[in-house]
Design goal:
mainly alpha; disordered N terminus; 18 helices
């Protein structure tokens, strides 16, 4: 068999410039919803202390961004990703401004419709598809890099937002960030996001010789359905500490500033370790990377149940960030490995929709369980249970992949 290293490649220095700019765009865009997370208790104080209300606004953002990814992905296929990113940045700014009118309806509409559906929805999924077309050899590493934008946002922005909110309040913080977001994303998208290169023949060959109507011996959409379940169930527990760690620390007597710093440790670790997971996925494939990552995330989730002191929580936060960081890009990569590239424009956004639903469900569920029980242990226990379901789903797919690979190798 001819090795890919001897075939022409679309990857150039320009590919990595595009991926880096996409990373910056994602890091700024995903900063917007963090203001509500850092200000969760401040916003809840305006609605009788109900944390489920700001948590639901964050959930609507994730739901909206997932649905918007499918819609805007089709628009990006027709008009180009530059248009959807420019539009998305303006919608995020409008959503932040609208959210300042307060809980609950303006906050819901601002986050769900503007920041989520037509804001991040026009940036996140379209950039996954777009950047994947600039790579054919190190696609896993490239997807890991750009998907780290959300974690880079979580590492950089919470301490800044905590400080600014303490000085000017959460409303003015949203307005200031809306301006900053436009100043960064609009010129970056306008200058850098040109059409991707055409794939060489060897890269498009799987689309034309897709001789089997099955994937790993199963109907394609059965496999894809399991992938959708896997990415949903990995993101439910993933979102719980991210969305509630500042409030959790405050309940334990740890200052909000230290809680925000803990979120930065969690997501900073996720950012750097995701590059490692990307390199691993390039070697062993997306499914097996998902399997290892799911086991690591489950261990981190269990550790949150057993730790309540500040030093221990900083350690657990870092370990949790390391564990979950490879799951989403590995799942997206697995989709590119299993299905024709011509289907990427709808399969990738659909997976990210399920990811957004999982993030939304986890953040909202943690808020509901806290409101009911008055503490976070039941929420973290529920997250651990969902994580174990995730591990079983991925194990099924990985076992099936190894079995079919062995059969092919024996022929």
């Amino acid at each position: 068999m001819l090795q890919s290293s001897s075939l022409p490649s679309v990857e150039t220095r320009r590919s990595w410039i595009v991926a880096t700019v996409a990373l910056v765009v994602m890091a700024v865009a995903f900063g917007a919803p963090w203001i509500a997370v850092v200000s969760l208790k401040n916003i809840a104080a305006e609605v009788n202390g109900e944390r489920s209300i700001p948590a639901f606004a964050s959930a609507l953002m994730w739901i909206g961004s997932g649905i918007g990814g499918i819609l805007m992905g089709r628009i990006a296929e027709r008009f180009g990703v530059r248009s959807t990113v420019l539009c998305g940045s303006m919608m995020i700014a409008i959503g932040l401004a609208l959210s300042t009118f307060g809980p609950s309806v303006p906050l819901y509409v601002g986050h769900g419709l503007f920041i989520g559906l037509i804001g991040i929805g026009g940036i996140n999924a379209p950039l996954y598809v777009y950047v994947s077309r600039w790579f054919d050899r190190r696609r896993g590493s490239a997807l890991a890099l750009i998907s780290s934008g959300a974690y880079l946002a979580g590492a950089v922005w919470p301490p800044i937002f905590e400080s600014v909110v303490a000085r000017v309040g959460w409303r003015d913080t949203m307005l200031y960030f809306a301006v900053l977001e436009l100043l960064v994303i609009v010129p970056a998208a306008a200058i850098v996001l040109r059409p991707p290169p055409s794939l060489p023949r060897h890269a498009t060959l799987p689309d034309t010789v897709h001789v089997s109507k099955t994937v790993m011996g199963w109907p394609p959409n059965v496999v894809f359905g399991l992938q959708m379940c896997a990415i949903f169930t990995c993101c439910v527990p993933m979102s719980m500490p991210q969305g509630h760690l500042v409030a959790f620390c405050s309940d334990l007597g740890i200052s909000p500033a230290h809680g925000a710093a803990m979120v930065s440790v969690l997501l900073g670790t996720a950012f750097f370790s995701r590059q490692m997971w990307g390199a691993i996925s390039d070697r062993i494939g997306g499914l097996y990377t998902m399997l290892v990552g799911s086991a690591c995330q489950a261990a981190g989730m269990a550790a949150f149940l057993l730790t309540q002191n500040e030093v221990g929580l900083f350690t657990v936060a870092g370990a949790f960030g390391f564990g979950f960081s490879g799951l989403v890009p590995a799942n997206v990569l697995a989709s590119r490995e299993l299905f024709p590239s011509s289907e990427a424009h709808w399969r990738m956004p659909t997976l990210l929709l399920c990811s957004g639903w999982g993030m939304a469900t986890g953040g909202w569920l943690a808020g509901v369980l806290y409101d009911h029980f008055g503490f976070y242990a039941p929420a973290f226990a529920a997250g651990l249970g969902v994580n174990l379901i995730n591990f079983m789903i991925i194990s099924t797919l990985a076992f099936r992949r190894s079995k079919t690979t062995a059969v092919i190798a024996a022929i």
